[in-house]
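Just wondering, does anyone understand these tokens?
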Amino acid sequence: MSLFSIKNLKKSSIYITPNFPTLETKRYKIKIFQLVSYVILFVFILILLLSLLFTYSPLNNVIMFMENNKIENQSAKILELEDKIIILVNELDRISDVDKRLNYALTLAKTDSLDSTAAIYDSLRKSDGNLIPAGGSILFIFDKLINQYFPSDSLFWIKPINAIIGREFNPENGHLGMDFLAKDGTPVMAPADGTIIFANYTTENGNVIIIQHKNNYLSIFKHCSQVFKSVRSNVTQGEIIALSGNTGTNSSGAHLHFEIWKNSKPINPHSLIIN
């Protein structure tokens, strides 16, 4: 804008003519710069008044209440998000744990007997915990014998099938369970309450079921002709879970191969079952 135009703008004025029917009409002359100054002054005074009003009047509480509500809502959303993250992490841990158990169960399902030269054979031998250390007292020896033959957490296991035993538990020779001689189609029962963690067909051992029991016990049933339960099914003691058979390449006749594992080691089923 040229200097001439600025000078003209300074000299310019705005005329305001109110029109009131009952009053005499008058015209008010206001220069443009003067009007701008009035507007700026009015805005400044308005801001100052509003600041004083919100600072020293009850309106301040209203503003703080609204801000607090926003902060509380945001905090609640953050807490909700944290809870969801915790739930997600726990669920991922649970899924990871289930995957580990299923992989472990699959390994057991494929293992009927072990060669004494196998790499994991040494870990399946009798635990040193079954031995009575030298220097133990008479009370310690008595308590050890009682716990060995009458374990308090496993007094109520039952035989899984009504049949005679054809081959006993013999881990030193690679046989990790006992074989019950039963004709094809004999009912197989859960020896104790638990949850099915494996129920599927394997090439070597045919139809296999694995039950997870309390206190880190697993019971395993192999060479079944039929399986009646699925993974994650809860079973009760004495409930029929399968039928014995002759499935899998490791089987040479109708029977049930039965194993019990405790803390990742096979144990003699005779130490648990009561009939």
Summary: The chain has two domains: 3-56, 128-271. Helices lie at 3-11, 32-56, 59-109, 138-149.
